[in-house]
Specification:
The structure is a single chain. About 35% of the residues are buried. Strands 1, 2, 5, 6, 9, 10 and 13 form a seven-stranded antiparallel β-sheet that branches. The chain has one helix and 13 strands. By secondary structure, it is mainly beta.
């Protein structure tokens, strides 16, 4: 399987947190799943493979509850993962605390850096954010901000 040229893209809450999710303290919960479309490949992060040597990918994830906007901050552990077609976690690309990736809503350079990550995720696999909260609650899709840089390419036949 060969890969076409990569293009920059940004995954948002529309793809990664499409609905409210009830979470329990210390228990991992998948906030949402973006299934890689047929004929495409995705990978977390950005970098030199796009000719952007000085412009690495960035993360902004601000997890909020489902209360009145802007919602209360929910802290915990976040993971950017790839799942196989059966929905099982196949690879953890990044792991960190919510406090690390909440900055930069208005200033791009304040966002946490997410360099190009391998392996590339093929069609049929999915990308998701796994959240292990410090306290229970309801993650509010409308109040949560998600901007995760990624790259996409067409999957070429051999």
């Amino acid at each position: 399987m060969s890969v076409g040229r990569f293009f920059a893209t940004t995954l948002t809450r529309v793809e990664l947190v499409p609905a409210n999710v009830t979470v329990s303290a210390g228990v991992a919960a998948r906030l949402g799943t973006f299934v890689v479309p047929l004929g495409m490949m995705f990978a977390w992060g950005r970098g030199s493979d796009l000719g952007l040597e000085d412009t690495e990918g960035r993360i902004l994830i601000d997890v909020r509850d489902a209360g009145v906007a802007p919602g209360l901050v929910l802290n915990g552990l976040l993971r950017l993962v790839a799942n196989n077609p059966l929905g099982q976690e196949a690879h953890v690309y990044w792991e960190g605390r919510t406090e690390q990736c909440r900055l930069g809503a208005t200033i791009l350079r304040d966002r946490m850096i997410l360099p190009a990550q391998d392996p590339v995720v093929p069609a049929g696999f999915s990308l998701s954010i796994v959240f292990v909260p410090d306290t229970g609650g309801v993650v509010g899709s409308a109040n949560t901000v998600v901007l995760v840089d990624a790259r996409r390419a067409r999957q070429l036949g051999d």
